[in-house]
Amino acid sequence: MKYEEMTPAEFLQAIALMPVFFVPTGLLEWHGDHLPLGLDALKAHSLCLQTADKLGGGIVLPPNYYGRPGFSRATGTLTFSEACMDLLFSELFEQLTKVGAKVIVLLTGHYGPLQVNFVKRVAEYFMAEHPATTIIAQPEYEGVTIDGETPADHAGKWETSLFWHFYPDLTHMERFESHTPRISYPDPPNDYYKESEEWEWQDLPRVASQKLGQRAAEIITDHLAERIRTALAAV
Ligand SMILES: [Zn+2]
Asked: Which controlled-vocabulary keywords does the entry list (predicted)?
């Protein structure tokens, strides 16, 4: 199931069974005092593995940590230009098509308009030139509602719960402090958004839980698996 762990024979067998490739993507980005910098890609990776498990097939790439701006000025965040990311993903899609992908799932665990619009655009451009490849490019919360809410935030109730469920050893609720992002770096020279002005932290220790994360993961991966089945049926 994990690309990097497969032998060539296993790889060919997996593609013959189901020509689906998962690209879990995120960013190295500040996620409060209680969560690690690589949360977005790690979360996306676990959701891809769980979805592949439900499908009974598919090959999951290692997490990709490079993406478009998010909390660019906060501690530890690394961001990349659209030109750089465009090349990376266009060539990756090209390479995955070469090895046999019919459906590519680009699941972004990092959100914000710059990232989400980017993944959709790069997928659309590729599909226009390569009609035999279907790319499902989306943040994990897309199309999902849980208890009347979209399960999406930044290190808030949903993201903390999801991550806590998948990575309890990397989640440090005792270090949680409610504050706006601590600005560590000057404004970047080009595109980013002013993250702190929109910041609103929830009452996290009261609302986040591993149990909620488990439930959200089930609903998200059920929904994603269904999208992939529909795409596969049209291949
Ligand atoms: Zn995040």
From this structure: Hydrolase, Metal-binding, Zinc
Percent of the chain having pLDDT more than 70? 94
Mean pLDDT (the chain) is 94
For residues 1 and 120, give the distance between their C-alpha atoms in angstroms, rounded to a whole number. 25
CA of 15 to the centre of ligand 1 (A): 31
For residue 25, the 8-state DSSP code is E
Query: Structural domain of residue 196, as residue ranges?
Result: 3-233
Domain CATH code at residue 142? 3.40.50.10310
Distance 129 CA to ligand 1 centre (A): 31
Total structural domains in the chain? Answer: 1
| CA distances from residue 9 to 5, 12, 16, 61, 103 in whole angstroms, order as listed | 12, 5, 11, 17, 20
Is the Cβ–Cβ distance between 42 and 184 less than 8 Å?
no
